[in-house]
Task: inverse folding
């Protein structure tokens, strides 16, 4: 793996991690409008939603931003 690839993966990972917080908050807010969540369950919902968005973001953005999709 070249230094260029390492730099590319690091920058895309930071981009996805940083940009996934707001969509996760919006999704959890919509969920809490339907299902009332408080305390521990709310934190689990935030973490799960954030992890799912990060997973799909890394899965689809890494090849797409490189131009291989």
Result:
């Amino acid at each position: 793996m070249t230094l260029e690839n390492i730099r590319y993966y690091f920058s895309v990972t930071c981009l996805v991690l940083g940009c996934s917080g707001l969509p996760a908050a919006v999704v959890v807010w919509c969920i809490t409008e339907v299902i009332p969540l408080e305390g521990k369950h709310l934190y689990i919902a935030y973490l799960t939603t954030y992890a799912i968005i990060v997973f799909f973001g890394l899965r689809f953005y890494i090849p797409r931003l490189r131009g291989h999709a």
User: Anything to note?
Assistant: The mean pLDDT is 90. Residues 36-69 form one domain.
